Write the structure tokens for this entry.
Amino acid sequence: MTEGFVLAVETATQTGSVAIVSREKLVAEITLAVGLTHGERVLGAIDRVLQDAGMGVADLAGLAVSAGPGSFTGLRIGLATVKGLAEAHPLPVAAVPTLEALAWNVAAAAHPVAAILDAKKGEVYGVLLAWEEDRAGWRPLIEEGSFTPEDFGDRVAATPGPLLLLGEGALAYRRIFEARVGTRARFMPGPVGQPRATWVGWLGLERIARGEVEDPVTLVPRYLRPSEAERARARRIAGGLG
């Protein structure tokens, strides 16, 4: 096994990606439309990225996966793929929070960053982070969670000064956030607001180095809210139909 290379899978949003990274560089990355795909195509992308890198699974030091929050279907595809690889190959697995990986698109930002994904049904997944130069990492100002856009906008607006907003959720509810934050809001363009397997892999390497690895058997997505099936079941139980 070669030290330092990790295979990363990011399928939390409609545009996913697969990458091989080391601490020093991005070795290879492929983007795919998760909304139009399924597990077999993700495996095909993994085969392709390994070929592009001139590597095999035996050359990897570990696996990393974007663990959520995000699309319920997309997260299940990504985690099932990584769990299957880990079952077939004795590699450590790191689970990386999706919103943290998204924020790394603007690492070392001078202003607080709100990473926001569209949770559908009139809600967003969001976190507000501030960059700490001494530790070269993010510090949460608002812990990640599921919010209405209005609620999250009000919470973010309580932080003084300019604020960077990025992610599909920021653009989907831009008018609401503009109304709450006003001219202090700086919206990042769409491509910058897409979680990338590159950062999932880099953060995964950091976790593996610290021994923060997951048991693939018990690894589950970080949904942050009940699925629609769970909500429907709760409604049936509340109505005496469970």
